[in-house]
Amino acid sequence: MNRLAIVTGGNRGLGLQIVKELSRKGIGKILLTARDVSRGAETVMNLEDQGLKNISYHQLDVSDQSSIQKLVDHVHNNFSDHGLVLVNNAGIYKNGWNRQVYDEIMKTNCHGPVQLSEGLLPIMIKNSFGRIVNMSTGYGKLTYLSKGYKDILSKDDLEKQEWNNVISKIQFDGNDEKMKEPNAFVPVYKLSKACLNAYTRILAQRIRTKNLEKAIQVNAVDPGWVRTDMGGSGAPLSVEEGVDTAVWLATMGEDGPCGKFFHKRKETSW
Asked: Which of 8, 164, 203, 216 has the fewest CB atoms within 10 Å, counting from its CB?
């Protein structure tokens, strides 16, 4: 079966390195997505100059529902017979606890990846093949959240719940003392990734109920502190080290995991 890998936020940082690694592994065709058309197209041209010829570009703003739907329609219309690999990498990283920051980060880091995953899942089910890798963070662990959010996302029966029921309970609370306190560094970013982790678990359970966990695998990744524009030059890990686990999961065989959270190829806690 022909394969198509879709990497969101693929024009720089971890996303760009993931595109390179998947191309070198001969995964098939790669769709590099980025919000800025000129930057995305230029990135593909630069990769072609490096000898990586199996990469094309498609515009995607993961905070825009219509943009996501255009990409989903493009894949359904042109690659419905392909085995799909989806790396939900695009995201934003901002500090602050207010409604504007909350809405912007949650749309980009959580709701967008969920919409894209759900839009492409029917192809994965039809072809009995899919790999979804959700790029998360150690900051997405439940320990960083205030009690109200933690209680919603740590329920014993979380994996058996409907995603829409869970996410509907996650609302902005401007009076949340833990999330708005002065030393609550990037609180919305932490919450958005914790929600993405929860979706990973819930989707994995849906896949298991269909007995498709060998064919379709969804997992989350903490890449660690990496030397990117986001991580800064003082980070201890190179981009090659940062993407290793994501690429490992994206190219995993049928014996791979489903519904787990990994750091440096080792399972870690939620």
From this structure: 164
